[in-house]
Design a protein that fits this description.
Blueprint: E1 4-7, E2 10-13, H1 24-28, E3 31-39, E4 42-43, H2 46-59, H3 68-81, E5 87-94, E6 111-117, H4 124-129, E7 131-135, H5 156-168, E8 172-176, E9 182-185, E10 189-194, E11 197-200, H6 211-222, E12 226-229, H7 234-238, E13 242-247, E14 251-258, E15 261-262, H8 270-283, E16 288-289
Parallel strand pairs: 7-8, 7-14, 11-12
Antiparallel strand pairs: 1-2, 1-6, 3-4, 3-5, 4-16, 5-6, 8-9, 10-11, 10-13, 13-14, 14-15
């Protein structure tokens, strides 16, 4: 049975959920999106995702024609229409139909669509045994050129780095800033553990302010860990006690090797495992009900 897709105010079968070839999201990556998760009949941190979506659209001067409350309802309705209590949700807003020129004024009505489906980012083995990563030669976009606070539809920087990980036969890769500081992964944020401190690269390096990133920082503080946003280089990562990556789809995944170097003993660390457990407990207990 085909999925039901929310498209511009209506739920339609996926075969009918079409976007114009003149849509500026297609032609120029002109738009914003959110990846959201639902667990146990609740959409996790939905309001935070919606706030970030509308903030990005405001920066791009895309006037979303429905309210935040209506957008939240569209997400929940899409899950309900597909009988999903656990789902990955992709919410997209483009500038809409225009012409072949760049001028955004030619696009009068934004396109909005919501997809809800099941997803498994990584096999369970990776959560139990950990990931091996490489450092990508593709450097992270400078925040002076494209502000990472906007989760825009232009992900070519990330895709070029992802191609490197595919060629290397590993599931994820680390992206550095132009001056060699660890930024983030191709699709996830990254944390290192040193003693009782949890350290994450600051957002001004060009990282996305991930919802999962923020949640893990909150959980770590509640666990009594010292949480620091601080610049660090590969040397610090290679010599960390533990490291892990976070993302809405990936959740919390331990890393055990980078560029052929085992991190500590080459096994998932106790702090990583504890935070992953706390995160799973939270996602199944908190969220906006799907009605």
């Amino acid at each position: 049975m085909s999925l039901m897709i929310y498209l511009n105010g209506k739920l339609v079968p996926q075969e009918q959920a079409t976007v114009s070839v003149f849509d500026h999201g297609v032609l120029y990556g002109d738009g914003v999106f959110e990846g959201i998760r639902a667990y146990n009949g609740r959409v996790f941190r939905l309001e935070q995702h919606i706030d970030r979506l509308y903030a990005g659209a405001h920066t791009l001067m895309i006037n979303i024609p429905i309210s935040k409350e209506e957008m939240c309802k569209a997400v929940c309705d899409t899950c309900a229409a597909n009988n999903l209590t656990d789902a990955y949700i992709r919410l997209v807003v483009t500038r809409g139909d225009g012409d072949l020129g760049l001028d955004p004024r030619k696009c009068t009505t934004p396109t909005i669509f919501v997809i809800a489906a099941s997803i498994q980012m990584y096999p369970e083995e990776f959560y139990q045994k950990g990931l091996e990563l490489i450092t990508c030669s593709t450097r992270r976009n400078s925040p002076q050129t494209l502000d990472p606070a906007m989760k825009s539809l232009n992900y070519l920087n990330n895709i070029l780095a992802k191609i490197e990980t595919i060629q290397a036969g590993v599931p994820e890769g680390i992206m550095l800033t132009a001056d060699g500081y660890v930024s983030e992964c191709t699709g996830d944020n990254l944390f290192i553990v040193k003693g009782n401190a949890l350290i994450v690269p600051p957002l001004h390096l060009g990282n996305l302010g991930g919802i999962t990133r923020m949640t893990i920082m909150e959980l770590a503080e509640a666990e009594g860990l010292e949480v620091r946003e601080e610049m660090f280089r590969l040397h610090d990562l290679y010599n960390a006690d533990e490291f892990f990556i976070t993302g809405t789809a990936a959740e919390v995944v331990p890393g055990v090797k980078v560029d052929g170097r085992p991190i500590a003993n080459g096994k998932p660390g106790p702090i990583t495992q504890r935070l992953r457990k706390r995160y799973q407990e939270l996602t199944y207990a908190e969220g906006t009900p799907i009605e």
